[in-house]
Design goal:
This protein is α+β, with helices and mostly antiparallel strands. The chain folds into three domains: 1-57; 59-140 and 215-232, Alpha-Beta Plaits, CATH 3.30.70; 148-210. It has helices at 2-58, 75-88, 95-98, 123-130, 149-167, 219-231, and strands at residues 61-65, 99-104, 116-120, 142-145, 172-175, 178-181, 184-186. It has a four-stranded antiparallel β-sheet. The protein has a three-stranded antiparallel β-sheet with strand order 5-6-7, with helices on one face. A hairpin with a 2-residue loop joins β6 and β7.
């Protein structure tokens, strides 16, 4: 009997030890889970801070696309072309006061003009230029805001959906990375689930030619088209 009692006592003691260790493991896992949750929250907060900082840095920038790219173009020529475009739109530019930097983006590829980054000193001048972009029609030059890469990707999706909404006779406008269609707000993650509410049948409508299609115009020819269009 003593042997059986000792055996049960031994088993009970070992189970108590195991229960204690199991409790420690459970507590450690719980603490780790809480730490991971806190870390995820911190990473998300840091990501938002970085995104806001990047947006702040870019808020005075504009991207010019379609400006003919000369084979041996230097910084001064790029700046001259960009300022000429702004002036042709009716926006006077004083380089020493209005411009921080002008430069081409990316590697030079024959027949494919590199975008131009224009860094301005004030947002007022930026919006003054954006307000005159209708004068670019027919020049194969267009101007966009300088969006972060992830916003650019989201806007590509939303622009496609916005054009589709226009074709269907719906009211649609794009604001940063949100698309507003008939007073409903969509983003890139939920726009694909949207069903058109249009009463129009556009099956037989032909897509209008894209005014941004590249042509082999020389810069002087592009500039003439801007000047002529902006005066109308």
């Amino acid at each position: 009997m003593n042997e059986i009692k000792e055996m049960f006592d031994f088993i009970r003691e070992n189970m108590q030890v195991m229960d204690g260790k199991l409790s420690d493991v459970i507590k450690e896992l719980r603490d780790t889970k809480l730490e991971n949750a806190a870390m995820k929250t911190e990473i998300k907060a840091q990501g938002m801070k970085i995104a806001n900082l990047e947006r702040e840095i870019r808020k005075k920038n504009l991207i010019f696309k379609g400006i003919m790219d000369d084979e041996k173009e230097d910084f001064e020529l790029t700046k001259h072309k960009t300022i000429k475009i702004c002036e042709s739109l009716g926006v006077p530019i004083k380089p020493e006061f209005d411009v921080d930097q002008v430069r081409r983006i990316g590697k030079q590829i024959p027949g494919k003009p590199r975008p131009v980054l224009l860094q301005l000193t004030t947002t007022n001048k930026k919006f003054e230029i954006l307000g005159k972009t209708k004068g670019l029609r027919g020049s194969n030059i267009w101007i966009d805001e300088d969006y972060p890469k992830e916003i650019q990707e989201e806007r590509k999706i939303l622009v496609s959906e916005m054009k589709e909404a226009w074709k269907n006779g719906e009211k649609a406008q794009l604001r940063y990375n949100k698309l507003i269609i008939n007073d409903e707000v969509y983003d890139a993650s939920n726009i694909i689930n949207r069903e058109s509410t249009s009463q129009y049948n556009n099956a037989d409508k032909k897509r209008k030619p894209d005014m941004r299609s590249p042509e082999n115009d020389k810069f002087g020819e592009q500039l003439k088209k801007i000047t002529r269009t902006s005066k109308n």
